[in-house]
Specification:
Layout lengths: L7 E7 L3 H12 L4 E4 L16 E4 L5 H21 L4 E11 L3 H12 L5 E3 L1 H8 L9 E12 L1 H14 L3 E3 L4 E6 L6 E5 L4 E9 L5 H9 L6 E11 L16 E5 L3 E5 L7 E6 L3 E2 L14 H10 L11 E9 L6 E4 L8 E5 L9 H14 L13 H5 L3
Parallel strand pairs: 1-2, 1-10, 2-7, 4-12, 10-18
Antiparallel strand pairs: 3-6, 4-6, 5-6, 8-9, 9-10, 11-14, 11-15, 11-16, 12-13, 13-14, 17-18
Helix pairs in contact: 1-5, 1-8, 2-5, 2-8
The structure holds flavin-adenine dinucleotide (FAD).
Length: 395
Amino acid sequence: MDSSCCNEFDVIVIGGGVMGSSTAYQSAKGGHKTLLLEQFDLLHHRGSSHGESRTMRATYKKDYYTKMAMESSKLWREAESEAGYSVYTSTDHLDMGPAGSASLKAVIASCEKNSFPYQILDHGQFNDKFSGRLSIPEDWIAVYTELAGVIKPTKAVSMFQALAFQKGAVLRDNMEVKEIRRDEVKGGVVVCTTKGDKFWCRKCVVTAGAWTRKLVRSIAGLELPIQPEDITVCYWKIKEGHEEKYAIGGDFPTFSSYGDLHIYGTPSLEFPGLIKIILDHGCQCDPDKRQWRPKPDLDSLKEWIEGRFLGLVDGCAPVSMQSCMYSMTPDEDYVMDFLGGEFGEDVVIGGGFSGHGFKMAPAVGKILADLVLTGHADGVELEHFRIGRFEESPK
Ligand SMILES: Cc1cc2nc3c(=O)[nH]c(=O)nc-3n(C[C@H](O)[C@H](O)[C@H](O)COP(=O)(O)OP(=O)(O)OC[C@H]3O[C@@H](n4cnc5c(N)ncnc54)[C@H](O)[C@@H]3O)c2cc1C
């Protein structure tokens, strides 16, 4: 390729959230002339990758994510050491739920399959460990693991963008891509923005988050079942004098609860004296017509907080709420695949991260860059992430 032409690239990545930024970093690191296009300002707060904290954990019901999280954890540390600063603080992790819970059984099976160390705590052992801070009902158990932590999302996205830039990538914001088409004359892909800019590339990666369905529909006429959901992040006040018990840096873990509801949270970090505890589901939304006035039904969450936190966290009402989007697939597995059709293997889609993608961003960026540049991603069981699965099983 003639690298003197400023509008021609080896790889164009569309979408500057964590997945696109990590992919651009991997592509540029491999020596490929890379362009990252973002429709809004870089580090905006209108997608899925902004905010103050994301959980890192390796316990998953599906064992291929445990393996991916172990790999990702190493890659986070590598990227941090290249950048020279930290975005990820290690903690332990706790999964809790009724002793017979299918979710917990699957988590344990996944740990076993991956030889990932874990400890099961019954009610008594749990109380010994968390006495005075957290409690579970008598018929619940917990799975305790060590590879976990809290990642600072906006700082992490900015880190990948800085690293990509350092390796020679071009980053352009306020560039909404409206069309991607095959270049019938010289091959490759032409990418056009709503402002009339036109770029050419050999290969293209679409990481458009909650906009993936809209964009893929308009560029390829393909309907991907990726449904955006508006999620409300809630911060709750720790009662005065008890803040240290839940602060990061001690032994309070990140946690997931698998009772009737899936609830998760992180130790107190971003706002001293507050703790993040969230319901893992939201309301379907259109990413271009959001309400910005989330009114989640928090009754069950309040009850859970009162019960589990022994009255030391004020469950009356959250003191702060933020809005963010998940991009849900029907099976909650990611989409990482070639777009196919006229684009063959020249366009790769990375989307549908279903509310559990952030921790995997370093691994996902590597997979997407490898896929688009070489046609394969070694050591990754891609069948779980193929677009074709939606046709085979419409659920
Ligand atoms: C409240 C909340 C809590 C979460 N907690 C966790 C957690 O604890 N652990 C975890 O692992 N994950 C978590 N996640 C999920 C994780 O944050 C997401 O999976 C991840 O951020 C998705 O990143 P993305 O790059 O795919 O999407 P985004 O960050 O939305 O990036 C997509 C980008 O594409 C841009 N774009 C779209 N269309 C175009 C276009 N046409 N042209 C140019 N640019 C375009 C968008 O503007 C956007 O910037 C959470 C998510 C939320 C909302």
